[in-house]
Amino acid sequence: MNGAALVAIAATIGNFLQGWDNATIAGAVVYIKKELELGAAVEGLIVAMSLIGATVITTCSGTISDWIGRRPMLILSSMFYFLSGLIMLWSPNVYVLLLARLLDGFGIGLAVTLVPLYISETAPSEIRGLLNTLPQFTGSAGMFLAYCMIFGMSLGSLTSWRLMLGVLSFPSLLYFALTVFYLPESPRWLVSKGRMLEAKQVLQKLRGREDVSGEMALLVEGLAVGGETSIEEYIIGPADELGEDEEPSADKDHIKLYGPEEGLSWVAKPVTGQSRLSLVSRQGSLVTPSVPLMDPLVTLFGSVHEKLPDTGSMRSMLFPNFGSMFSTAEPPIDNEEWDEESLQREGEGYTSEGGGADSDDNLRSPLISRQTTSLEKDIVPPQSHGSILSVRRHSSLTQGNAGEAVGSMGIGGGWQLAWKWSEREGEDGKKGGFKRIYLHQEGAPGSRRGSLVSLPGADVPADGEFIQAAALVSQPALYSKELVNQHPVGPAMVHPSQNAAKGPTLAALLEPGVKRALIVGIGIQILQQFSGINGVLYYTPQILQQAGVDVLLSNLGIGSDSASFLISAFTNLLMLPSIAVAMRFMDISGRRSLLLTTIPVLIVALIALVIGNVFDFGTIAHAVISTICVVIYFCTFVMGYGPIPNILCSEIFPTRVRGICIAICALVFWICDVIVTYTLPVMLSSIGLAGVFGIYAVVCVISWIFIFLRVPETKGMPLEVITEFFAVGAKQAAAAKHE
């Protein structure tokens, strides 16, 4: 956890620089227009040039990051920051200044777009929300410190706007050094390119442990989102508790699970009928949802969190230990031979096609060992943690069951990744194939004294204990080429990176799950920009001036410009504790819950501002009401609607198109930002403050409705599970409409 947190903090320096730049240009433009004698149009262009640069670079940042990686783009962002700072420090005329502001916008655009993506791909699911709130915190901290610097400089007799803007180059040097020498590449991106050894080493650094086999398996499986997926349900309990008299189905319908202790075995019995973790749930149906117009995906995601154990999303009773359920089990001593191609190197990497060299070229083989899948060959578990499928068939561990065997890995957030081997009769005899299973505990276990995997020394499950688990079952990313092509079973296995290397295509963007996620991401970005934050920021100095703050400061010998800078610094200081509260609850209450709780407060604050500007309550009362409403609006906005849209956009897209999809959402964000920035003065002159805040209040109402009906809860869920949910939910919803 500490490694992921430090990496996230280092990455968010890019957002710190964005906040720093936003504050310094707001202060410097006061002196720029005096020295260069600029008109209003050129003054506005200087400020907006960074927005233009951010918008331009965003159009290609996602595609390039999917091609060359996340880390090189963050390095490029730091270089843009540094170069723009140097040029602004020099700036002999307005044209050079505009060029510098454009380069600065390039750096801002890359940081705002890719830092949330990078954090989501490196953070554990249990604290992903907390770490992804850091960009909001560091951005506000950068604005606060920059306003403090500007305030101090404004008190002097000679104030240099070039120095104000050029200071940016110094912290950008630190950002450059960290991106080059400290930040690792995203392990998910490395896996998508087949660079398994590097991905494993990065995960070991981020998680602070050697055994990362479970998460490595998850990252590989994340490349296969969008296939045929079914939602099933299992009753999981000790093998001796589900006797033959309780089992109407044959042995082959059971999935065997084994704990780390020798002799501790469990069985998963498929439940017929509809799972509670389904679009057609026992609480309602897809055709007639409990809430009209609600997206079934919201209900599907919500059913997961409703059935979490009492400990919440941080840890599930179902799978309390993070790691393989089987890799610690001692294999039976017999004369069976290893497949000669199944060479494992404990602690060094995964199966190599080229011998013993630890090079990326030798790690193009699948994460699973390349082995034959014919009936005559056994899949034998190694004693190390190096193999994903540390299982075997026809061994004493499976008690002679010729049905299905499972290898399983904890993947965080109460989820478990498992595989089952299914045999079936075909024209050419018996064939087999893997199925991937994402397991999640549905309800309270029959007894809470034990768990599916008991740690040494823990309670042994009592009589009658069982666990009900929902499962997403689908074709795994690691598959047999012959099985897929319907040819006789052979030894070759296809690594998913061979397909991922082709890059995102338009067809991938048009998949039902991706389209549904894009609707959520684009919709929430548009509504956030029109929810009033820019208008309130614009109006804050005027409100505080009416409250008499400027008079108080002038009595202290502080000029009007300096007073404005100090007020802005105070406003950003108020945001920091509120963001800290959001960081605390982001992974506890969840993204959706925070939005649905905080947006009504924004609506009330905006309505109060409208009333205060329509009716005459007197100067003092108006100033007090306005000041309180502005403070409440700021503090509430940064707790929910500020950071969460970017967090959601970094979570809901599949790995293979995550970069381009986030770039699309970010492009919408910047375009809406430009529209709001340029239309605000026009709206103020035409309909006044009351009209502007009234429109913002209406947009916040629409936002709440949109979030309630369309935005699912993603807290604590692995990214791969989230995208699988979008895929299966969208396909089932589409299928139900055609019935």
TrEMBL record:
Residues 7-715 form the Major facilitator superfamily (MFS) profile domain. It comes from the Eukaryota. The keyword Transport applies. It is a multi-pass membrane protein. GO terms for molecular function: transmembrane transporter activity. Residues 328-365 are annotated as: Disordered. GO terms for cellular component: plant-type vacuole membrane. PROSITE patterns: MFS, SUGAR_TRANSPORT_1, SUGAR_TRANSPORT_2. It is found in: Vacuole membrane. Belongs to the major facilitator superfamily. Phosphate:H(+) symporter (TC 2.A.1.9) family. Belongs to the major facilitator superfamily. Sugar transporter (TC 2.A.1.1) family. PANTHER family: PROTON MYO-INOSITOL COTRANSPORTER, SUGAR TRANSPORTER. This is Monosaccharide-sensing protein 2.
